[in-house]
Amino acid sequence: MLSLTRALVLSLVLVAAAGVAAAPVVVRLSTVAPAGTTWDAALKDMGAAWSKATEGRVTLRVTGGGAQGSEGTVLKNMRPEVNTVDAALLTATGLADIDNAFNVFAIPFFFQSDDEELFVRDKLEPVLAKRLEARKIHLLSWGHGGWVQLFSTVPVKSLAEVKSKKLYTSAGDTSMMKWYTSNGFNPVAMEPTNVVQGLTTGMIQETPMPPYYASVLQVYRSAKHMLQVDVDPLIGALIMTDGAWTKIGAEDQGKLIAAAKVMEKRLQAEVPAQDAKAVTEMKARGLTVTTLDAKGLADFHAEADKLVGTMRGGMVPADVYDLAAQARGDYRKSHGK
């Protein structure tokens, strides 16, 4: 009788465990990417892939357009004590709020092409993923937001002119604010959602932004000038909390990463073309694009290069900066640059 009772209890425990394991996981994802954009569509397609690959065991709920607040607010909501957001597609600025190593992707003029940035990113990924894991966050994939250009309400053609104008920088990023100020810029900190209003009212005169995003926000209505200088690629990443990740079985985790990597490649392929199209469309609506000649661009980069090194050890941890610089040097050497 005792053996029968034990067997019955064991069976009930196993059934209960199986029920828990089979319970679907709903991943609540937040992003500032506006609804209806390429990034929003890519995220939702990835969610559909997650559901199909896991046979419904994992589903994705996307809240976009900054509806849940700034990236800083989203990160607070991802904390275990709050736990209202499980995952996020963040820009490098948001990622730097977790670990300033991600500022390596915000160094002006550090990269010269997508291929170069991809090469460096591959070298950095193990280090950056480990730094996130130390904070109980998992890196699933990367995101590409396009190459940042400089939009302004008045024409600018040199770094000196850029410094003289009121430049947008993200609110809450005190280290970037200090870096700009110490290097002679005139930064004005505000939330990304207030950029259009800031340009319209004159609170700011210029903002770095990828063309497609500028087109979506209709920034060109107030900032009618664009200096095409490829400031830096707007890099982001898809991350998930440890609390959500550990609810997902190991096999399904692999499926989620595979689908996230498909999204990564999709954005890498589609974003450059959509930026080029956005520039053409904005020019038709009155945007003036300024491109520098070889000497002007060389002078611009020479001045910028003097500033880049000041990020080492402050804005970007020295070991991460050095690893990125070494990888970039290896890439350029192998490509005869």
Number of strands: 11
CATH class: Alpha Beta
**Which parts are unreliable, with pLDDT below 50 for 5 consecutive residues or more?**
12-20
Q: Approximately how much helix is present in the residues?
A: 40-55%
Order of helices and strands: HEHEHEHHEEHEHEHEHEEHHEHH
Shape: globular
> Average pLDDT, to the nearest integer?
90
Looking at the overall shape, the CATH architecture is 3-Layer(aba) Sandwich
CATH topology: D-Maltodextrin-Binding Protein, domain 2
The chain-level structural class is alpha/beta
Tell me the domain tally.
1
Neighbour order of strands in the largest sheet? 2-1-3-10-4
Strand content: 15-25%
Number of helices: 13
CATH superfamily: Bacterial extracellular solute-binding protein, family 7
Radius of gyration: 23 Å
Largest sheet: 5 strands, mixed
The separation of the N and C termini measures 81 Å
Write structural notes for this entry:
This protein is of the alpha/beta class and 337 residues long. It has one domain: Bacterial extracellular solute-binding protein, family 7 (D-Maltodextrin-Binding Protein, domain 2, 3-Layer(aba) Sandwich), CATH 3.40.190. It has helices at 2-22, 38-53, 71-77, 92-98, 114-133, 159-164, 174-182, 195-201, 211-217, 242-245, 250-284, 294-308, 318-334; strands at residues 25-31, 58-63, 87-91, 137-147, 149-152, 166-170, 186-190, 206-209, 225-227, 233-241, 288-290. The termini are far apart. The model is unreliable at 12-20 (pLDDT under 50).
